[in-house]
Specification:
2 copies of one chain form a homodimer.
Chain A lengths: L6 H11 L12 E3 L13 E9 L11 H17 L3 E13 L3 H18 L3 E10 L4 E10 L15 E5 L9 H4 L4 H10 L4 E4 L4 H12 L2 E5 L7 H5 L6 H7 L6 E5 L1 H9 L7 E8 L4 E4 L5 E4 L10
Parallel strand pairs in A: 3-4, 8-11
Antiparallel strand pairs in A: 2-5, 3-5, 6-9, 6-10, 7-9, 8-10, 11-12
Helix pairs in contact in A: 2-3, 2-5
Chain lengths: ~300, ~300
Amino acid sequence: MGDEFDYIAWLRKQAARHPRLAVGIGDDAAVLKFPPAGVPRAPEGCLVTVDMLMEGVDFLIPPATPEQIGRKALAVNLSDIAAMAGRPTACVVSVALPRHGGFELGRGLFEGIAALATEFGVAIAGGDTNTWDGPLVISITVLGDPQGTGPVLRSGARPGDWILATGSFGGSLAGHHFDFTPRVREALALHQAAPLHAMIDVSDGLAADLGHILEESGVGAILDEGAIPVSTAATAARDGRSPLEHALGDGEDFELLFTVAAADGAKLLADPPCEVSLSHIGEIVSGTGCRLRSADGTLRQLSPAGWKHGFE
Amino acid sequence: MGDEFDYIAWLRKQAARHPRLAVGIGDDAAVLKFPPAGVPRAPEGCLVTVDMLMEGVDFLIPPATPEQIGRKALAVNLSDIAAMAGRPTACVVSVALPRHGGFELGRGLFEGIAALATEFGVAIAGGDTNTWDGPLVISITVLGDPQGTGPVLRSGARPGDWILATGSFGGSLAGHHFDFTPRVREALALHQAAPLHAMIDVSDGLAADLGHILEESGVGAILDEGAIPVSTAATAARDGRSPLEHALGDGEDFELLFTVAAADGAKLLADPPCEVSLSHIGEIVSGTGCRLRSADGTLRQLSPAGWKHGFE
């Protein structure tokens, strides 16, 4: 274990930067101290989410760097907390490092994690570092506090709601999936500006994740083909699939997709509470399934059985 | 992914059994609802711990069964919460399942987890299930509430304290490491009966883990050779190492090792608040390092540099 990254020493160093962090780092469990009185606290309860990334499945080294992998492993979890309009507070990290080169890899991972954790005020509260003869596996659990009127779920969309989205979609696998900014600040600002009815972060794909909202809310939707913000990467793709297909199907955009009352939607567009672009891409309707409306008003069904596979 | 364990469906079924669990299972993050008013709540903050187990490092299949691995992956974390005299509340589980046979393996793992989670009233709040071509990796994060006067740390041992331990030590790898009962109830009962100064669960080995307490408390210790409870498995071992060496060095006993004021130690022994046996195995002294006292009063140093390696 001579080449093992000294995780505990590194944690202690990180701890000094995080006034909210953990007493008792190096103990079996960490104790999280919540913010002092005066800082808004969650009404009750807490948010928790976990994601595991595996070498050969979620990334290859190279081209991905250890810093990129560490950053992404935290970022996908921050995006999950953002999707509920929560404030991330702390994380714990478990890793299985390949024995060969594990020290350098571990250091890189944790530098990527620490940079993003610092940016979002997230305490790194502990972890479990292991070495083995297998490929790299990293699992991060993030805790968060619900804010305002409580967590936004997938199940709150109502007929008449506007469907809004942050940013643009498609082509993320060309590189953006490693450097995306989790929409934590945007989610908090939006949730404060208007009651969000339902929200999700787009990880499976715009159509697939809208499908999750529709299914859990028991409603349908109409999306406006021309209103869907297509990313430059999706427009640049030359693989026989249209930019729109990329935008609807690619996944890993990590933008927010949410629904609000129509009046609130108009208000958010007129006076956006965040710098990231907001787009009004459709409406929630009663019924089930999702239809795509083209410029001439034609409606086409988006396959309810296989959202990922695009058009029927 | 046709053979993938339907984790979300399984979680929803589990959720029904846990009134404290998570609204919004299937959402990106889970929302933990804390117990209703009236149930004692943590003074502030929460406990969090994580452990990752890997096939080929921590277990082999066979002889270990999926149920045993799932149970142990949760049990080691419950033991970490017990070591701080906390009450475990919820867990999240991330797994990388081998593609071949992943369904059966996943089901077995989660049955082992669920049985133990139910026994200890721990909500399974979510997770991340993946398949790949590598070996099994499972990472569990457990959240807990500190109880009473707050979490017991490793750093509170004082000269004059008695050193007490639950259960017996050594030979755990013969099988006990899969079926041990995490000492959650015992830790809570002890912490309520007397102020515990320092505590740890014995995972690295009795000598090594006592070493952690001594180091973090800045104190030394004398252990009474004849007072150390040696397990039947350690006595039965026929490998050239004495039962005492097994008891001091083996690890994975997952018993509690703690220090209390002498008067409280006597009180706990006279009127034990738990059914598991309690042993008074030594005293905390000023200075550093640990010495072993034999029946005739001779003192021998236990190597401070390499606790795991036993005697100097």
